[in-house]
Amino acid sequence: MKGNTAVQSVTRRSALGTSGLLLAGATFAKPALALGAKSWIPTAQKEALIKDAMKEFAVPGVGIAIIEDGEVAWEGSYGVSNIETGAPINDSTLFQAASLTKPLFAYAVFKMIEYGHLGLDDRLADYFRPHDYVSTNWNAQITVRHVLSHKTGLPNWRRSDDPSASLETRFEPGTRYTYSGEAMHWLQQVCEAITGRGLHDLMHRFVFAPAGLSDMAMTWLPGRDAREVYGHDVNDNGEPQLADLQYAREQGWRLQEVAERWGRPLTSWRSIDLDAAHAVMHPHTHPRLADRPLWRLNRPGAALIDSASSLRCTPRDYARFVALLLPQSQTSSIQLSREARGKMLTVATSPGPDGPNRPASYGWSLEPRPSGVAYDHWGFNEGKYISMALGDTSNQKGIVIMTNGAKGNRLMDKVGPVLTGFDYRTFF
User: Fold this and answer.
1) What is the pLDDT of residues 351-405, one digit of tens each?
2) Sign, CA torsion 100/104/109/114
3) What are the strands, taking DSSP E only, across 336-395?
4) Are strands 240-242 and 312-313 parallel, antiparallel or unpaired?
């Protein structure tokens, strides 16, 4: 069942929780609203709310996918990909998933663990040490488990104005929580070193191909550019406007020129290939990039091939991934083992002064439910591409919302509780 509407403005974020059965001593989430047990597929009235929220928050385009009974049951497309051209969003439109990349990568890592390629308590430095790695006892202690539970002590991203900033943990790994894209990127380099494959290829090997997620890519690609949304800001009049800098396209075409010279597609590139390409690509001419030094392009936070943020996909494909963690999913033959899925839905980091504001697992934020667990994540790229995903094992439902506007999170917080019929803590 599908919905497809063209209007202007909208975005969203990411969400979900965890299982009361898995959270010792945790309080249950708020009671479900009156519509909680009903279908999440929006009625005409709820679709009108989505369109109104798009206008209210100046979000040009949004894509939504709904999971019912463990399977994707509906997808809706609203608004435009580019407000200047008026190109409509449709069910094949690609969005930047941003940090929704992280749970997907964590799933691939657990697959690699099942195949015996590495272990959850293996130390990253034993496999690969980045060129800016600092040889300290704490850095040497960082394990796969620390990365996936965000307990490495590494920052999210290093300061963009400090060329000397090195890869060094701030405290003893495992003792505190720090959300870190840097750590995910280092684990990416480890996985590339182990398999000899680039990030996209190894994700294809361990997740995309087995799960039939054929429309996912771990980087910007020229053949998919026409289907990918443009990022939008909000002007002084509260209206959406095309962002002056479309970084992925500016950078992507330069990398593609190198790929053609090398005779190696971007999908095969490892992190070390990306670094080498930066040194030989044509210089930027955009006023905001022309003077950007090479070391800034080499930082993981600017990478177009990155396990923390570079996934491009449709809401439907991401929802199919979310469904892989639901017990009633009909794709058990390609799922993780029951034990591994349990780890991804069990608290690894508790909230508190040195922890996250909600319980977290290996890849997701969690929320206890009376008969299960809700799991969620949000994604923000450049403040213009905002996404959210949520699944709930207690009712076999889920939702994915992807947007191309700077206030997509505001839209998601408004329409999320109405679409799901439940005031999940991820919506605030």
Assistant:
1) 887 778 899 999 999 999 989 999 999 999 999 999 999 999 999 999 999 999 9
2) positive
3) 365-369, 372-381, 385-392
4) unpaired
Residue 153 φ/ψ region, left for φ over 0, alpha for ψ in the -120 to 50 degree band, beta for the rest:
left
Cα separation, 26 vs 359, in Å, equals 9
Listed in sequence order, the residues at least 6 apart from 160 whose beta carbon sits closer than 8 Å to its beta carbon are 296, 299, 301
Beta carbons within 10 angstroms of residue 279's beta carbon:
10
Cα 272 from Cα 282, distance rounded (Å) = 18
- Percent of the chain past pLDDT 70, that is, above it, reads 90
Q: pTM value?
A: 0.91
> Tokens standing for 231?
């990022």
Residue 392's nearest CA partner among 342, 327, 318 is 327
Residues 6+ apart with CB under 8 A from 312: 94, 95, 96, 97, 216, 217, 218, 219, 220, 221, 224, 228
Q: Strand pairing of 71-82 and 2-4?
A: parallel
In 3-state terms the chain splits into helix, strand, coil percentages (rounded to 5) of 35, 20, 45
Residues 6+ apart with CB under 8 A from 137: none
The 3-state DSSP class for residue 253 equals helix
Q: What is the pLDDT of residues 1-52, one digit of tens each?
A: 434 433 333 333 333 232 332 333 232 233 333 334 589 999 999 999 999 9
Please state, as a whole number, how many other Cβ atoms lie within 10 Å of the Cβ of residue 106.
24
